[in-house]
Amino acid sequence: MRRTLIAANWKMNGLRDDAIALAAAVAGHAGGAAAPDCDIVVCPPAPLLVPVGEALGAGPVALGGQDCHAEASGAFTGDTAAPLLADLGCRFVIVGHSERRQGHGESDATVRAKAQAAQAAGLTPIVCLGETEAERAAGEALAVIERQVAGSVPERGDALVLAYEPVWAIGTGKVATPEDVAEAHGHIRARLGVLFGPEAAARIRLLYGGSVKPDNAAGLLALADVDGALVGGASLKAEEFRAICRASP
Ligand code: 13P
Catalytic residue at 165? Predict the structure, then answer.
């Protein structure tokens, strides 16, 4: 009932020509004979949204932003408004990525405000959360996840995706064990059930992120309560990203 969602987070990578070529390769695959039976979204750097959107064309691959501001407009130099993302053709926006929480001091309250701004603009926020290595070592992983769900999830549970990305698994090649992922996702689902009720919680897609590669994607995507992946490094190579999409159960 929850359709798999594979999201590409290109982060701060690529120039215009690379981005257009990569988007075209991903879109070509999605529309081809061996098209995977899943939803796909590509999130390029903000200045590349327009050319990447054009390269994706009217096909099934959706466009997404990597961040948005909590306000719809105003004097916020360098930020991107959610209504602008929607106007440029985005359907999704990542909010609360650990690289924004850590590198830009974003609190749970900030992340929630951004997620709500995204929903108000008609976008589906992909709200990221996950513990650091020190927090996991201290046995606090589930408590951190619980706090982040309570603090950063928007009030509306419709048009919502969550991504569990343990910080220590991002860009490191270290993947959380299936047991850890299953435990974290089960816990997130249970907390969402408390917030929105079990039926609404059962409709929310939970993505796993952190060193997802073609060789581990099938195992991760087969886990209960894992409804897709948020892919960083491997999304920059069309062949690898295609293979991850094909691993969709
Ligand atoms: P990697 O896939 O490079 O580990 O990045 C994960 C991530 O941060 C996606 O948002």
Answer: yes
Taking only the tens place, the pLDDT of each residue in 148-167 is 999 999 999 999 999 999 99
Span from the CA of 210 to the centroid of ligand 1 (angstroms) = 5
When divided into structural domains, the chain yields a total of: 1
Task: Confirm whether 97 is a catalytic residue.
Answer: yes
Residue nearest to atom 1 of ligand 1 (CA): 232
Q: Provide the CATH number for the domain around residue 150.
A: 3.20.20.70
For ligand 1, residues with CB inside 6 Å are 9, 97, 165, 170-171, 209-212, 230-234
pTM here is 0.97
**pLDDT per residue as tens digits for the range 96-110:** 999 999 999 999 999
Shortest-distance atom of ligand 1 to CA 234? 2
What range does the domain containing 144 cover? 5-246
Task: Give me 155's structure tokens.
Answer: 């009030």
